[in-house]
Amino acid sequence: MYRVGGVVSGPDFVDHEELLRELSRELSKNNFILSGPRRVGKSSLLEELGRRLSKKIIVVNLDVTAVHPLEKTNFLKHLGRETLDAYAASTGKDKIRIALRKKWEDLMDAIKHIRIDVREWITLYFAENPDVTDLAKQTFDLPERLALECGRDFLIMLDEIPKLIRLKGNVPYQEDIDFMWTLRSHMHKKQHTHFIITGSAVGMIENLFRPRDSPFHGTFLNRQVGGIDRESAVKLVERMRAVVKIDAELVERIVEVTERWPFYLQAFSRVAKDLAESKPLRKVTPPDFEEVEKRAMNDLEPHFSELVNKLRSELQLMVLIEMARMDTGRTSDIVRALGRPYPAMYSMMQRLVSQGYLKRVGEGEFAFLDHLFKKWLARTYGVTPPLSTSAKVEEEP
Questions:
Q1: What does pTM read for this prediction?
Q2: Taking CA 154 as the corner, what is the angle to CA 20 and CA 262, rounded to the nearest 5 degrees?
Q3: CA atoms of 190 and 21, how far apart (whole Å)
Q4: What pLDDT is stored for residue 4 in this prediction?
Q5: Domain extent listing, the chain
Q6: What is the spatial distance between Cα 288 and Cα 58, in angstroms, rounded to a whole number?
Q7: Architecture (CATH level 2) of domain 312-380
Q8: How far apart are CA 65 and CA 68, in angstroms?
Q9: Which residue, 49, 84, 99, 389, has most beta carbons within 10 Å?
């Protein structure tokens, strides 16, 4: 089966084998932070790692973006339930899994035989406004207790954890930083529970990891997830050769233009396959590349539009459009284009770094993390639309 988009695992997975081997080998000794742009394959990597390790340890894989409403107590309650569910699934305790979906009285009765203080659970997990610190302690103690109960370690994977952090300007709220310190203190003490946290807001991950006064400095190994190796990228595109003919030079051009991001490789490969099937010889060659790229970019429009919709102000969009349209990353160029003060523009571009759209490449200079998004912006907004009166220099917190 050949899939485009969504999480990929098992036989569909062609991705980051060296990193997977390191994670499998080192998890018993280290916790990890994985950072990389959206759609580079982090979630698929977690899914595949969990599949490979599931016979050895109990895996809990929580996508933080799926927690609604996205606030601290709800996140912790979700994690507690997912931990119990993974434990029950791995140990055959179906009564707990059924109780998790019913009344809390059934759940309390189902977990009485394991190392959990039922009264604590009643107080914390079913209280309307539980103390966040107490709830965090209970949540992160849970897998450790269950590990001792069943004799199997836990792997807790928290995908997109920076989404829990709110920004005011470029600065996180102090209570959110305090919460990250709370998480770190509980993660760091565990002997039978191992952690991987990920984020596509690369700038935010850097702030959590690098500074000496940051929550996860020195306790997590940081690994960046980028394009896959060239051999794997070629292999992914060439899967199509089982049904159509794709010229080797065209394969190389697809590999180059996608920067070997699995999501984009799949999208371009699917278009190449469809185009080949419409030709008499069922073959695509280098002259077909422009048509392949045009169709692929059209197919990817919902993804790019989603990236636009996640921007926090219209002015952020205008900054990105000008960077793409003029092919520049210098703050001074954006200042001249939009007629805004340098400090405001520089702050805005720093904010886009924290949100995972840009990276800093020099003093006052930035670049897109996703060059195909840049290309789409330049094509879509070739003539810059006027800035509406609702555009904001400062974003809402």
A1: 0.77
A2: 25
A3: 22
A4: 43
A5: 10-224, 230-299, 312-380
A6: 48
A7: Orthogonal Bundle (1.10)
A8: 8
A9: 84
CB 292 within 8 A of CB 301: no
Candidates 3.10.450.350, 3.90.1150.100, 3.30.300.30, 3.40.50.300; CATH matching 10-224: 3.40.50.300
- Residue 39 burial by CB count (10 A; 0-12/13-18/19+): exposed, middle or buried? buried
- Whole-number Cα distances in Å, 372 to 153, 276, 347: 41, 23, 24
CA distance 14 to 8: 9
Helix (H) or strand (E) holding 395: none
b/e map of 220-229 (b: 16 or more CB within 10 Å)?
bbebebebbe
Mean pLDDT computed over 250-263: 92
Tokens found for residue 309: 């919709």
DSSP letter for each residue of 95-124: HHHHHHTS-HHHHHHHTTTSS--HHHHHHH
Write the DSSP symbol of residue 212: T
Rounded Cα distance, 166 and 395, in Å: 12
Q: Which amino acid is at 341?
A: P
Look at the block and give the residue holding tokens 């539009």. 305
